[in-house]
Amino acid sequence: METGTLTIAVEDKKPGEPGPEKPDGGKGGAGEGAKAREGKQSPAPERKKPTKLSEDKRFKLFTGTANPKLAEAIGKHIGVPVGEAKLQRFADGEVYFQLLENVRGVDVFVVQPTCYPVDQHLVELLVMIDALKRASAARITVVVPYYGYARQDRKDRPRVAISAKLIADLLTTAGANRALFVDLHAAQIQGFFNIPVDHLFASPVLVSYFREMNLPNLTVVSPDAGGVERARFFAQKMGAPLAIVDKRRTDMNVAEVMHVVGDVHGKTCLIIDDIIDTAGTLVKTVDALYASGAPAVYACASHAVLSGPAIDRIANSRLEQLVVTDSIPLREAAQKLTQPANDPAQKLPKLKVLTIAGLLGAAIESIHMETSVSTLFS
């Protein structure tokens, strides 16, 4: 058997010296013919982005059991129906969740406030996120109008948990890629997340309502020092002065009002808060303002938790009206306060609910279309 040697001749070339000519006329690389052929290729067609969410097949909206009415209102605002899913519970309370639609490659938004019962709705949200992640959703944005455990945002006492950070870790670990909140109890909670966070304020909705009421000689009141920034923003929008109530908390859900900082004598007062829980702080603030010479006191808050004796306290208080949003569904016992009062002296219903569906719908649309959400703050 004959064997041969294959020799590859390598031509020595000095740096900068042109290489040998090719049959197609090129030198040392792809020929002019190849370049010409490349130039004739048409560019890949650019995918046209839908201008409306109702036309976008890569967008879906889902909800848990916490506030389905709000999710439906958001869907109606943006023209997208709430996605189909099955959410059930085993006899021992375990959550079972199944998507009934294909979400592969889809931008998904999940509406679920972590309101009462907080732990049940939180676990629902975590299970839904996990199901969406395993179904290959392109991006999962949690829309949490009310963020439970937000009041535990720091170590104010020895040996306590920072639960607001723990919930942030749970949502991120479950698979959330983005979060949308309304009026967090403390703005620094945004820093607990390692994913993008959009923080909305319900104040545009509340400001519009009170502007239409045109309350005379108005003064905006913060019920504590922690809410001064929120109240100051509201006062600027209303063109009204600001007052502060000095409060010292003696125990959880127990507050003692000390005195009012600012002139409220002869002024219509509007108390601004983010959460109304047991309404203890609210009622004592109302009493302090009347004691300081205020002729009428109104209040508004983003989240109507209304737990424990809150409903009875509000019903029996001297408050003219409490205005809240639908970030949390009203409990059945609170529905009676939204009806006109039997007392002729009470011209307005004790409780008024405003919807933030339009605000959340606009934010969801901006996030999906990748446009600015800053216009929603005005």
Describe this structure in words.
With 378 residues, the chain is α/β, with parallel strands linked by helices. The chain folds into two domains: 53-200, Rossmann fold (3-Layer(aba) Sandwich); 203-355, Rossmann fold, CATH 3.40.50. The chain is built from nine helices and 14 strands. The chain has helices at 32-40, 68-78, 118-134, 163-174, 203-213, 228-238, 280-291, 310-315, 357-369, and strands spanning 59-63, 85-89, 95-99, 107-111, 139-144, 178-182, 197-200, 218-222, 242-251, 254-261, 268-276, 296-304, 321-325, 351-354. The strands form three sheets. The protein has a seven-stranded mixed beta sheet with strand order 10-9-8-11-12-13-14, sandwiched between helices. A five-stranded parallel beta sheet has the order 1-4-5-6-7, with helices on both faces. Strands 2-3 form a two-stranded antiparallel ribbon. α6 links the parallel β8 and β9 (242-251). The longest helix is centred in the middle third of the chain and has 17 residues, at 118-134. Its cofactor is Mg(2+). D-ribose 5-phosphate binds at residues 249, 273, 277-281. Belongs to the ribose-phosphate pyrophosphokinase family. Class I subfamily. It is found in: Cytoplasm. It is an enzyme of class 2 (transferase).
